[in-house]
Amino acid sequence: MSEQLLPRPILQAENICVQFGEFHALSGMSLRMNPNSIHALIGPNGAGKTSFFNAISGIRPPNSGTVTFDGRIVTKMPAHERVHQGMARSFQVTNIFPTLTVAENIRLAVQARHRREGWVFWRSPAVRRDILEEAQLIMERIGIASRAGMPAGELSHGGQRSLEIGMALGGRPKLICLDEPLAGMGIDDVQATKELILGLKADTSVLLIEHNMSVVLSISDRVTVMVQGKKVAEDAPTAIRKNEAVMAAYLGSQA
Ligand SMILES: Nc1ncnc2c1ncn2[C@@H]1O[C@H](COP(=O)(O)OP(=O)(O)OP(=O)(O)O)[C@@H](O)[C@H]1O
């Protein structure tokens, strides 16, 4: 496909460099991500995947390079401002309010978006009903509506990761960055979360760091492979499976 026929990328990172002292964690990393797609970032431990997430989400902006999100350069924009622009991120460690119920966690996430849009809590009972309804729809979508009244900290590990995705959805993001969403999950939770992630691309885009290769290769539209802070391959999963450089650098070590 020629450049002109490609859709405008939801995310474009160009020549990203990140240094910790003398150490180069990322050396000219680039990535172009299509909207409404699942794009996986894989590579061995220490390849720089989390550093790349930190660079694009503003947790630790790059030393050099450019990050463009939804047509706007955000390289130096603070992380919270990127959230306002529609970029959501989940972390390796779950990031929920454990003593609040599942429903309250989701409702807070939806409410935070409304507040950004200028909603005034005490003047808007009708909008409040909207919020409750939206929170209910999200809970159904992520498969935890039956546990709405449970303290979030009592959910299984898989349930907590789903809740985190639900909270991200409360912000109606254009892009969700998921850092190892399947880590530590049992087989049933893996299957449910895989289906949940697949369903996300109907209305958002997903950038995914994940070590579970069979899931990555079955749900992703594109896969970028990183080794030692650089991209070594980027292709469709079927081509990545056969890529000899990838096998040598990464998949071979797992075979
Ligand atoms: N704050 C930091 N200070 C110094 N070095 C760091 C820092 N953060 C990361 N690194 C180093 O940068 C390199 C890339 O780390 P990063 O966590 O980005 O890799 P990764 O691909 O996400 O690894 P993993 O799969 O194990 O999570 C590693 O060598 C790591 O030790």
From TrEMBL:
Keyword Transmembrane among UniProt keywords: no
Entry keyword annotation includes Transport: yes
Source organism, top-level taxon: Bacteria
GO molecular function term, any single one: ATP binding
Record CDD domains: ABC_Mj1267_LivG_branched
Name this protein carries in UniProt: ABC transporter ATP-binding protein
UniProt domain ABC transporter: residue ranges: 11-253
PROSITE patterns in UniProt: ABC_TRANSPORTER_2
Pfam family of the protein (one): BCA_ABC_TP_C
Keyword entries, A-Z: ATP-binding, Nucleotide-binding, Transport
